[in-house]
Amino acid sequence: MQCRAFSIALAGICFLLGMQYALAAEPIRVGVTASLTGDFAELGRDQLTGIQMWADDLNARGALLGRKVEIVHYDDASDAGKSAALYERLISQDGVDLLLGPYSSALTLAASRVAERHNFPMVATGASSETIWDQGFSNIFQIDAPAGDYMKLPLELANDKGLKRIALVYADTEFPREVAEGARKMAASHGMQIVFDEAYPQENLEFAGIAGRLKAASPDVVLGGTYFNDSVELVRAIRKTGFRPEILVMTVGPAQEDFGRQLGDDANDVMGAIAWMRSGKMPLAYDFSFRYKEKYGHNAAVHAAYGYGGGQVLEAAVRLAGALDRDAVREQLKTMKFRSLLGHYRVDETGRQIAKETYVMQWQDGYRLLVMPEDIADNSIKY
């Protein structure tokens, strides 16, 4: 009788241990949508690849809270409404454990409303529009620099060179509008004159008229709040006029390898206001870039760093929380100080990023080189 009781007890213990092991073996599921088609396809693919590389690296190191990490993702087709619906699916149907945000400020704003409704913390991996953090959300945490800061270094450069005539041209969406607004404020603080200020529809790829008006305004500096395709076509149109401003800076597009492939020599001297860049003086970035190219066969673009860095921030919050409990993870995202591949992470009470650096790169003789800040630059600026 005692032997039978012992056997039953042992079987029960084994069953419970087996259940615990099975539960522990279930992966932590991280939900995200990615723009794999549509206007943001190239950038969205880069970001998703960075997220997946983070998960692969984490799983190769061991685990997170004793469990592997799995990325659950859907194509949002670069559409804010579709992204919002898919985040609802990730939370309500798929039951993901953690959330990373989509690419672009417009899609992130839509996804943020869903996350906030579910009181679900989300790391915004590809958004810089301050409109998101003006909504009073308590669950959305920014890793990128605010859009209004992107032209800080280019305008400081222009001021140092005594250049006072500034042109602003930008897509009529959240991020570029805020890039332009930040540039206006900084230009005014430097005593500069805005001689050209024009927005265009995001889908516009015909820039002959804008380029002609830019040339007529004769600015010293042209600042473009752009994405990828529009940045390529805008530079192409400006070059066709023969006009060469002292400084020509765009957001997003110049950081991509395809920018140089499509423009050839016309890309030379164009600068990019960016959030990240590979540099020999930034060991984390250099190591990531080397391993990324070895893994995927092409160079890492900035949006791959967004994805990887966003994953690192989320991982750090979970490790510090010691659990997947949303309240505990949210508290760590609010209070922790951390350095990811993308740079410093620290947010204010709204979740807005207050520690992230910005950089300037330039196309020189067919290569992308970091040129500002000077202390980590790979080369000096060419004019």
Total domain modules: 2
Rounded to the nearest angstrom, the distance between the terminal CA atoms is 92 Å
The percent range for helix content is 40-55%
Structural class: alpha/beta
Query: Could you state the CATH homologous superfamily of the largest domain?
Result: Response regulator
Low-pLDDT segments: 1-23
Q: Biggest sheet, in brief?
A: 7 strands, mixed
Give the SSE map.
Elements: H1 2-25, E1 28-34, H2 41-61, E2 69-75, H3 80-92, E3 98-100, H4 105-117, E4 122-124, H5 130-133, E5 140-142, H6 152-160, E6 165-171, H7 174-189, E7 193-200, H8 208-217, E8 221-225, H9 229-241, E9 247-251, H10 257-263, E10 271-274, H11 283-296, H12 302-321, H13 326-335, E11 338-340, E12 343-345, E13 359-364, E14 367-372
Parallel strand pairs: 1-2, 1-3, 3-4, 4-5, 6-7, 6-8, 8-9, 9-10
Antiparallel strand pairs: 10-13, 11-12, 13-14
Helix pairs in contact: 2-12, 3-4, 8-9, 12-13
Could you please describe the fold and organization of this structure?
This protein has helices at 2-25, 41-61, 80-92, 105-117, 130-133, 152-160, 174-189, 208-217, 229-241, 257-263, 283-296, 302-321, 326-335; strands at 28-34, 69-75, 98-100, 122-124, 140-142, 165-171, 193-200, 221-225, 247-251, 271-274, 338-340, 343-345, 359-364, 367-372. It has 383 residues and is α/β, with parallel strands linked by helices. The chain has two domains: 23-145 and 283-345, Response regulator (Rossmann fold); 148-274 and 359-376, Response regulator (Rossmann fold, 3-Layer(aba) Sandwich). The strands form three sheets. The chain has a seven-stranded mixed sheet, with helices on both faces. Strands 2-1-3-4-5 form a five-stranded parallel sheet, sandwiched between helices. It has a two-stranded antiparallel ribbon with strand order 11-12. Helix 2 packs across helix 12 and helix 3 (80-92) packs parallel to helix 4 (105-117). The longest helix is centred in the first third of the chain and has 24 residues, at 2-25. The chain starts with a helix and ends in an 11-residue tail after the last strand. Mean pLDDT is 92; it is low at 1-23.
